[in-house]
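[audit] Reproducing an earlier prediction to check determinism. Same input, same settings, fresh worker. If the tokens differ from the archived copy the diff job will pick it up downstream; this log only records the rerun itself.
[audit] input (309 residues):
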Amino acid sequence: MNKKETHITDNTFLAKWIANEITDNQLKKLVSEKDFIAYKELQQGVSLYENLEGINEDTYTILKTKLPTKNKTKVRNLLYKWAIPAAAAILVFITITTTYFSDKTTLNKTDYGQNSTIALLDGSEIIINAKSEISYQKDNWKTKREVFLIGEAFFKVKKGSTFTVNTKNGSITVLGTQFNVKSTSGYFEVICYSGKVKVTNNNKEYILNPTQGYRKMNGNLFEDINESDIRPNWLSDETSYKSVPLKYVLKDVENQFDVVFNTKSINIDILFTGSFTHKNKEVAFKTIFKAMELDYKIINNKQVVLSKK
């Protein structure tokens, strides 16, 4: 029996899979590869069913329309057992199918002060920092593991084919490792935490081993970077710096707290070494501006005017 025929005959496989009564390998035998990839995305959204207090009449109607009319007795007996997860699965699948088959690019974005974790189909993981974007092609992921980054993200890459992170500032290539990438206007930084990383920038290649980093600011390269931590501090709600121009620090603060700095009366190119917390805006301001000997005034909880003391 081919996959298409099985897909039609077994009208409860999706509900069974969501209910963990059949395995991924069993599901692969029941559906096409493209369907399996789309169904795997359900695992990121199936938690929606936990917020459903019960299956209402509208959801029941939608569920019935998604199942074939034959074997009605079997469907009716199984319906209530898998009602909530199946209903959630179908509703999420409708959304996924629309985005997946109409646009092959998957885009993940974060807002101010928000982190987001992406579980890729190969088991790799990406944690995105605030005001950042990750996009990738799902349809050819097995043969081309490639993502596009704007902002900052931490990568945990499973071993396999070449994994590439493309940014406007350069590209990073690995086989299996953990590393952090930050790519914004005028700022490009890559730090390797395990394995080995190859950074390509302006047709030049740099190989990074664990604890080593690559940083380029305002067109100037800083190769001597050593990182003693085992992962980026921002994963613990704190961002730290070593001799970084204040303008880049302020941009990170804006991304975390949704504020805008007025810097007309200060020098934003002076170097900052230190850190700030993501949990409390006032504490973050005092930590940075006391060290830099700056005063600040908050206007309408959004505008922050900086001045010399």
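[audit] rerun output stored. Observation attached for the diff report: The chain has a mean pLDDT of 78.
[audit] end
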